[in-house]
Write a structure and sequence with these properties.
Strand 3 and strand 4 form a beta hairpin. The protein has about 625 residues and is an alpha+beta fold. It has four domains: about 70 residues, Elongation Factor Tu (Ef-tu), domain 3 (Beta Barrel); about 80 residues, Beta Barrel (OB fold (Dihydrolipoamide Acetyltransferase, E2P)), CATH 2.40.50; about 240 residues, P-loop containing nucleotide triphosphate hydrolases (Rossmann fold, 3-Layer(aba) Sandwich), CATH 3.40.50.300; about 150 residues, Bovine Mitochondrial F1-ATPase, ATP Synthase Beta Chain, Chain D, domain3 (Orthogonal Bundle), CATH 1.10.1140.10. The chain has 17 helices and 30 strands. The structure holds adenosine-5'-diphosphate (ADP) and magnesium ion. Adenosine-5'-diphosphate binds next to helix 4.
Length: about 625
């Protein structure tokens, strides 16, 4: 009888959608195993005892009447040490482990493996703030495990658990299957709860936090146009829409490589497999400098702070949605330890397409372009999980999740429903432009349509920097850049109508400086040895030199000098400004860059005062 109850029966199979009856008693979003092959699926619609199931694995070969087994639990991820430096599929199956076990490049259907390695031994150091007899609750940090050279993994009491500590292990080496703490219910001592270094969490449910906070710390990406013109914060929401080939993937990857987030969750959602292969090839070769406890520096591989969730275009479409939820849940877990996390999703459009396919097969009423009417809600629900928060539990701490979602509208048409819904949700919009990409202007961020709503909090941040820090002026310098670019746009129309000669000298200066800004500041070749990454001190130096040049030019013009004359007199300084970006970031020696900038600023001052003096 029990057996009968826990099994449904397939009525219909339609692509990734399976309809089964005899499913009464099951819940929405319950995980089920479909068919004799035990394929993994999730219930997404229930009417009477008929359930519609989206299947995360290829459904070929299923037949009517095959059993559907209920599991009684929703889709969950395993959270514990071993997530970083790992690669999972959309439902957190570890790809390397599967490849080792099956000796195949494909994932066999219905395979069940632990997401994390349960045999690996971890070095656990209990927190000295928790003792036997204490009452602890969800989010309390009870110990540390060094996950690798970069990540100190905090072991926490799982959310929604509470109890008095009955026993607690001492410092030592444990696996994920070892009980490290036993809790008893203070009201009923017969009820106990075992705490492991790992726990599970349903992916569709946001992990709890005390409150959302506003954030004013910049998320630096190493891309000048993003860091200064359209900046984002730790805990922000950003979208990168752009047609095929505009550089969405390059930006997402650059962000993962060089951003100042403590950890990265990179979700490859429905895009080509070779992009994931590229990540797998590139990332392990990249290192960052890390300060050790003794003050020395050590080069550590960036994979150690990165977790990849891969759902490429040849994997089942329904799992795209799962990969997004898996990714954000992993990011929230590390956020709860008090870290600043960044999650990239490339691309959210592929997820929306999966929603459209399933919705169509469910026979739901289609909305704009055939996408389901709830598309906007789903996207909003996802982006809402970003933010800086006060974490639950003790000790008090804050953490953040930044979401960067790529959007690939067909033909680069930003009026498509996914782009326009995303636009109303996110705070930062990096609109990529096909024409710029065609001209090889990368990153092809269009400065006329992109925006950032974090300019005000970031102004506060920069203005609170020490008196002698030139980055205090970043907001003002950027405003000047934007003004120059806007003027260029309107001047270009005049030039097209009546020619360049009709322009005043002041306007010629604006056009020339605008060109410098576009070609020597905004353009940044991600594949060059000197410009793949631009540290903030270099960016600040470039801003200083270019704005100073502009101001001094305008001053000279006001004293009746022509642009041609200025250009001749300051030839060397002009060349130096255009070469600024070639200062190598690998020299990474902040002082060398700062010295070059200071020298150039001096040269500019003397050059212009000589010019003005000659006239006298
Ligand atoms: N920052 C950059 N610097 C130099 N080339 C770039 C840059 N961004 C993109 N590209 C070029 O554009 C191509 C397409 O970029 P990609 O990120 O794959 O586009 P998308 O993901 O939008 O389809 C890259 O292969 C590269 O040649
Ligand atoms: Mg791409």
């Amino acid at each position: 009888m029990a057996n009968e109850l826990s099994h449904g029966r397939i009525l219909k199979v339609s692509g990734p959608l399976v309809v089964a009856d005899l499913m009464s008693g099951s819940g929405m979003f319950e995980l089920v195993r479909v068919g004799h092959g035990k394929l993994i699926g999730e219930i997404i619609k229930l009417i009477g005892d008929t359930a519609s199931i989206q299947c995360y694995e290829e459904t070929a070969g299923l037949s009517v009447g095959d059993p559907v087994q209920r599991t009684g639990a929703p889709l969950q991820v395993e959270l514990g040490p071993g997530i970083m430096d790992n690669i999972f599929d959309g439902i957190q199956r570890p790809l390397e482990t599967i490849a080792d076990e099956t000796k195949s490049v494909f994932i066999p259907r219905g395979i069940t493996v632990n997401a994390l390695d349960h045999t690996k031994k971890w070095n656990f150091t209990p927190s000295n703030e928790v003792k036997v007899g204490d009452i602890v609750a969800g989010g309390y940090i009870i110990g540390d495990v060094p996950e690798n050279d970069m990540i100190m993994h905090k072991i926490m009491i799982p959310p929604n658990v509470r109890g008095r500590v009955k026993s607690f292990v001492s410092q030592g080496v444990y696996t994920l299957d070892d009980i490290i703490m036993v809790l008893v219910d203070p009201l009923d001592s017969s009820k106990t709860f075992n705490v492991y270094m790992v726990h599970k969490w349903p992916v569709r449910r946001p992990r709890p936090y005390v409150e959302k906070m506003s954030s004013n710390e910049p998320l630096l990406t190493g891309q000048r146009v993003l860091d200064t013109m359209f900046p984002t914060v730790l805990g922000g929401t950003c979208a990168i829409p752009g047609a095929f080939g505009c550089g969405k993937t390059c930006i997402s990857q650059a962000l993962s490589k060089y951003s100042n987030a403590k950890g990265i969750i990179y979700v490859g959602c429905g895009e080509r497999g070779n992009e994931m292969a590229e990540v797998l090839k590139d990332f392990p070769e990249l290192t960052v400098k890390q300060i050790q406890p003794d003050g020395s520096f050590k080069q550590v591989c960036i994979m150690q702070r990165t977790c990849l969730v891969a759902n490429t275009s040849n994997m089942p479409v329904a799992a795209r949605e799962a990969s997004i939820y898996t990714g954000i849940t992993l990011a929230e877990y590390y956020r709860d330890m008090g870290m600043n996390m960044a999650m990239m999703a490339d691309s959210t459009s592929r997820w929306a397409e999966a929603l459209r396919e399933i919705s169509g097969r469910l026979g739901e009423m289609p909305g704009d372009s055939g996408y389901p009417a709830y598309l906007g809600t789903r996207l909003a629900f996802f982006y809402e999980r970003a933010g800086k928060v006060q974490c639950v539990g003790s000790p008090a701490r804050t953490g953040s999740v930044t979401i960067v979602g790529a959007v690939s509208p067909p033909g680069g048409d930003f009026s498509d429903p996914v782009t326009s819904s995303t636009l109303t949700i996110v705070m930062v919009f990096w609109g990529l432009d096909k024409n710029l990409a065609k001209k090889k202007h990368f990153p092809s961020v269009n400065w006329n349509i992109s925006f950032s709503k974090y300019e005000r909090p970031l102004r506060q941040y920069y203005e609170s920097r020490p008196e002698d820090d030139p980055s205090r002026n970043i907001p003002d310098m950027v405003t000047k850049f934007k003004k120059i670019l806007a003027e260029e746009k309107s001047l270009q129309e005049i030039v097209q109508l009546v020619g360049k000669d009709s322009l005043g000298e002041e306007q010629k200066v604006t056009l020339e400086v605008a060109r410098i800004i576009r070609e020597d500041y905004l353009m940044q070749n991600g594949f060059s040895a000197w410009d793949y990454n631009c540290p903030m001190h270099k960016t600040t130096g470039m801003l200083q030199c270019m704005t100073t040049f502009y101001d001094l030019c305008q001053k000279a013009v006001a004293s009746k000098f022509t642009w041609a004359r200025i250009r001749r007199a300051l030839h060397q300084q002009y060349v130096d400004i255009t070469m600024l970006k070639q200062l190598s970031p690998a020299l990474a020696d902040e002082k060398m860059v700062n010295d070059s900038v200071a020298r150039l600023l001096d040269d500019l001052e003397t050059g212009f005062s000589d010019l003005l003096a000659n006239r006298r």
